[in-house]
Amino acid sequence: MNNIKKLLQTRLGFFSLAVIVFWIKTYIGYQAEFSLGVEGVMQQFILLINPVATTIILFSIALYFKSSKKAYIALITVYTLMTILFFANILYYREFSDFLSVSTILGAGNVAGGLGASTFALLHATDFLYLVDIFILIALLATKKVTMDKRPFKKRYAFAATIVGFTLFAGNLALAESDRPQLLARTFDRNYIVKYLGINFFTAYDGYQTAQANQVKANADESDIEGVLSYVDEHFAGADAEMFGIAEDRNVIYLHLESFQQFLIDYKLETEQGEALEVTPFINSIYHNADTQSFSNFFHQVGQGKTADSEMLLENSLFGLSQGGAFTQVGGSNTFQSASQILGSEKNYTSAMFHGNVGSFWNRDNTYKSMGVDYFFDDESYTFTEENTLEYGMKDKIFFKESVQYLEQLPQPFYSKFITVSNHFPYPLDEANVDFPAATTGDDTIDNYFVTAHYLDQAIEEFFSYLKESGLYDNSIIVLYGDHYGISNSRNETLAPLLGKDPETWSSYDNTMMQRVPYMVHIPGTGNGKIHEEFGGQIDSLPTLLHLLGIDTKDNVLLGTDLFSENHDETVAFRNGNFVTPKYTVDGSTIYDTATGELIVEPSEEVLAEVEQLRIDVNTQLSLSDSILTSDLLRFYTPEGLVTTNPADYDYRDQLERMKALNEGLGTEDTSMYSQNGNQSTVDLYKTNAPELLVDPELVDETQPAETEAPDVKGAE
């Protein structure tokens, strides 16, 4: 005991005590206050150690002071500031299920409006435990229980402490990267940064990114938008006369098919018994439907942001960023001219996004507000249990069923998107939901991909049945799209035999063709559907949709072109600068003939010149998109009629109650499905065979299809 007391009388001893106490406090707070999704021994260990490194680094500042008194004051000051930051994050997380960003701290996020009025309501009786240690440390010094060490403290020891902190951080980062590759490159969720590297690092990293972004934005002015507007004007493709307005005033329902690639369409998996089973029979029927415009050469164009990048492309006709995710880096602070904002301004659409995952994932909660999305139904809107969720959120069948209580309350016309997650890498699915055989390549990721894709197909079928039963089907345009690849290039050679390909001759051309994803525009009652061979990408989705809804896009900043237009640009740019056209497939310096897949070994001067011009066009499109996002250029341009939105005006809490109150206030002008159904809910019309929702899941016959019949879809094969 005397040895411990003697140690505490030294500056290094008191410093060590402060580090240990703050470390313990932080770890307890992690476990008690935040839902970080920690899984497995490795993540638990990383969570345990992640407060140590930054705590040592920051506390070591006090060791550099020559004056003993100043050193102790500095340590208590740093300790107090770090405690305030930590406790502020606890309060903020209780209210918003998110962490404080630097822009929020500085006031850009309206902290006072978000927290000030409700701070007392957020306090818990046990919160004093997060603050009492400060007073204990001060009391130890004030009462002389611990005397200040007045001996000189050598700077090399202070420097050594700092080096120890950075060394520990390097180890922490290495462990984090081993468990979550590209953690900092992609930064897709603040929860992940905190879970792996801690709140202090998150705050510093967010501050660095904020400073960089602010500097770029500060250097931009109105003249920078001119080049963008010139490109958009020259690149514009007018609408096809027969297709323009064909879906005018209809509800828009986007069905986001997670990790769904084009090769799944009409694909039959051969079992070990030699039986060929259709993986996605219902989606196939929609693809070939007489009311569906389907595209066989439609490519995803995402970068590191993957799913969120696909949303950026579809919602804004802009690419994700070359590094990291646009949603996380600029989503909460930029000016957008999104589908929600355009449709709301032009046609008085209500917009809603549905996603059975945490709202902060990919910073959706903030980005959607910047994009003027009226409603966002995230995990707070769904009933999560261990049985009905997977790693990336709620199982699709349950997700769709629980979503209809909100869908029926949306004022019509509405613009909506449902983000599925069950067909997500690494494609796990519990035994109760498996009624399709896995492949037998030996690669679990590939083998299970067909199982979860089949489950997704059933979920989509059940949702279509509801749309028809509720009456929403006939007055809607339903767009089904794949967001990005499901099988990565590194696994394609293993997949090749299932596709009738030779792994030995698999090339980068084949990898490029594997980036095709479904794109189907289903417009009930039109009867003019076909399968289009035109090349296009996700950048083209928004101008295509707006023209179908009868909205002229001449004045909008859209980098894609209408897929139905005779002037549609069929050059599909990929985020890494590669591209594909109906004529050429270009991967770096390698050129293939797109029609045959043959490598052009010795391209002529004419071919080289043509490819070089295409490369210039692709780089121009990508660089303009980057400029728009990094410099926030859309703040300098507002087309006539577009209503500007303020993110602070959007609130994603208590949404069902607010929708009901809004509809009641509208009286006879209420256009929701609930109102049109005589103020009777349509929820009971939703039928599913999800075993999690049955009274006794053990009684489920897993060989049977969904309990509802396939919807009566005109022209289905």
Query: Approximately what portion of the residues adopt beta-strand conformation?
Result: 5-15%
The geometry reads as globular
Strand order of the largest sheet: 6-5-9-1-10-11-4-12
Classify the helix fraction into a percent range. Answer: 40-55%
Low-confidence stretches: 107-118, 697-717
The averaged pLDDT comes out at 90
Strand count, sense and barrel status of the largest sheet are: 8 strands, mixed
Write up this protein.
There is one protein chain. The protein is of the alpha/beta class. Helices cover 43% and strands 10% of the residues. The protein is built from 26 helices and 16 strands. It has an 8-stranded mixed sheet with strand order 6-5-9-1-10-11-4-12, with helices on both faces. Helix 18 links the parallel strand 5 (350-355) and strand 6. Helix 2 (11-33) packs parallel to helix 4 and helix 3 runs antiparallel to helix 9 (155-179). The longest helix is centred in the first third of the chain and has 29 residues, at 68-96. The radius of gyration is 28 Å and the shape is globular. It starts with a helix and ends in a 41-residue tail after the last helix.
